[in-house]
Specification:
The chain has 357 residues and is α/β, with parallel strands linked by helices. Helices cover 39% and strands 22% of the residues. The protein has helices spanning 14-32, 45-51, 57-65, 89-98, 122-125, 165-180, 196-209, 222-231, 243-255, 295-307, 312-327, 345-354; strands spanning 2-10, 35-40, 68-73, 103-109, 130-136, 146-151, 154-159, 185-190, 216-221, 238-241, 264-268, 274-278, 330-331, 341-342. The protein has a 10-stranded mixed beta sheet, sandwiched between helices. The chain starts with a strand and ends with a helix. The relative contact order is 0.16. It binds 3-isopropylmalic acid and magnesium ion. The site of magnesium ion has 2 residues, from helix 9.
């Protein structure tokens, strides 16, 4: 089969991790008889430098016409002092909104071979961790009204948290569907003791839950959820939450798996076009030194194979290749521990490709 993939290398370590991921997809294509056509486009800081804006219209157009989007990372020190609406991060928000990608899936899985990298005590993680954070991605405070006004205490700034029933319903449904294929448990995280938007969220989630009697649902306040994630993470299967809470909790969930350098993500909308990117950022401090771990991006490509292209076997092959290389003790710097073999990002990519046959 033929697939068109829009590729956004972006900034910092983005280009190097995306390059390795493209090679992995090409290997999958060779082995399983698919053709992946890559169209590279600019977004983020590099687009600001070359085209004057973080998300050029042409980039969004190419993405819309593609079957899927592969993204490295955007942002860096160089653009840190730009006004909020001109920062490289705006490219991400524009892509999410422009492509209607309201569901962000962030699996936090502890690989057996990386148990030592987990900062939690062995008795807390037991036989491993496998949590899926389902973050709402096109609503809430990220996209609510924002602005400034004068107050008695001087200039004030505001960002409005707002959710409609429809927005909550579709993300809740997505979470229940995912839970059905996993351990059939959804934890909805909100701040319903304080926020009106959370109370609406909770009532809609409860309504949707009635359609999924085989999946259990519990609610948790976000402060408690952040504590429970380190106290007893094994209680979680699928966590569904708002854009802002999901941003924060997915970083926390990723850290308890040892390295943010390992975690992929998928952003999906109503049709199957999806954007796939690592959870980590552009890491400008190590860019261009062949130190960056490409695994999160490679695993994001595996999610692309599974969710957008419906290629289960190929997705498994990529994930198994990663596991195999880890079991052979190869490590990039971010996941290095005593007695392991340190390799650069290129070598890591090459080792993973060799395992796909
Ligand atoms: C993420 C990032 C982004 C977000 C930033 C870079 C805009 O932190 O994808 O988690 O806040 O959504
Ligand atoms: Mg984040």
């Amino acid at each position: 089969m033929n697939f068109n993939i829009a590729v956004i290398p972006g900034d910092g370590i983005g280009p190097e991790i995306v390059e390795q991921t493209k090679y992995v997809l090409e290997k999958v294509g060779d082995v399983y008889g698919h053709k992946f056509q890559f169209t590279e486009v600019l977004a983020g800081g590099c687009a600001i430098d070359k085209m004057g804006e973080a998300l050029p219209a042409e980039t969004l157009e190419v993405c819309k016409k593609s079957d899927a989007v592969l993204l490295g990372a955007v942002g860096g020190y160089k653009w840190d002092n730009l006004p909020g609406n001109q920062r490289p991060e705006q490219a991400l928000l524009g892509l999410r909104k422009g492509l209607g990608l309201y569901a962000n899936l962030r699996p936090a899985i502890l690989f057996d071979d990386l148990k030592d990298a987990c900062p939690l005590k062995p008795e807390i993680i037991g036989d491993g961790l496998d949590i899926c954070v389902v973050r709402e991605l096109t609503g809430g405070i990220y996209f609510g009204e924002k602005g400034f006004k004068e107050t008695e205490l001087g200039k004030a700034a505001y960002d409005v948290e707002i959710y409609s029933e429809g927005e909550v319903e579709r993300i809740a449904r997505r979470a229940f569907e995912i839970a059905r294929k996993r351990n059939k448990k959804v934890t909805s995280v909100d701040k319903a003791n304080i926020l009106e938007s959370s109370r609406l969220w909770r009532s809609v989630v409860e309504k949707v839950a009635k359609e999924y009697p085989d999946v259990s649902l519990n609610h948790m306040y976000v402060d408690n959820a952040s504590m429970q994630l380190v106290r007893n993470p094994k209680q979680f299967d699928v966590i569904v939450t708002s854009n802002m809470f999901g941003d924060i909790l997915s970083d926390e969930a990723s850290m308890i798996t040892g390295s943010i350098g390992m975690l992929p993500s998928a952003s999906l909308g109503e049709d199957n076009i999806g954007l796939y990117e690592p959870v980590h950022g552009s890491a400008p401090d190590i860019a261009g030194q062949d130190k960056a771990n490409p695994i999160a991006t490679i695993l994001s490509a595996a999610m692309m194979l599974r969710y957008t292209f419906d290629l289960e076997e190929e997705a498994d092959a990529v994930e198994n290749a990663v596991k195999k290389v880890l079991s052979q003790n190869y490590r990039t710097e971010d996941i290095m521990s005593e007695g392991m073999i340190l390799v650069g990002g290129k070598k890591m990519g090459e080792l993973i490709r060799e395992q796909i046959s």
